[in-house]
Amino acid sequence: LQSSRVLNKYKNKVEIIPIGIGELNFPIPQSKKLDSIKSVLKSGYFLFIGVLRYYKGLEILINAAEYTKAPVVIAGSGPLEKELKLQVRKKNIKNVYFLSFVSDSEKAQLYRSCLGVVLPSNYRSEAFGITLVEGLMHEKPLISCEIGTGTSYINLHNKTGFVVPRSNHMALANAMNTLFDNPSTRHSMGEASGIRYRDNFTQNKMCESYFKQYKALLK
Questions:
Q1: Which of 75, 140, 145, 166 shows its CA 20 to 30 Å from the CA of 53?
Q2: Residue 22: Cβ within 10 Å count
């Protein structure tokens, strides 16, 4: 609303209802697919989950991985998968792991085991960022980029995680290293993430907001 020239003309008519998700959407983790990398990732990893599209900033994340102390897991498939894998091979980066498509059960396992969730999207095409809400729900610290959209509404800088300048691989790397080096920071930000999820992004709160809005329109 703040950054849209169109919606700004109708501020008095706008009601904001954030997308909410339910914990029951995530099954109990049980997967053999991840067993092969568990030994490598046992010290922790940073997680990206999503479709591998141009606006996700994954080439920036891969560049950042060269300077991080923890592995980076990229889960998902999409148009840029081959290109991103080629980037990793050409640069001989050893701590980036591609998992391609993962099931809901595998996704739940990845969220529960990671050190933090990274969404390096660097274009406004990333209007919200469900991945960030899922990270809140799993009480994980978040790292996202400032692109003037809903991502910085979900992830509160220095509270639920870090919001860094977009397309800046060293800023991403520094944020990941800060979380890796400071378990207490990870814990406190993770706790803040859980509170923000329960206060703003549950499925029940979303449904209640829609019900309230429809009811007001019927008056």
A1: 140
A2: 12
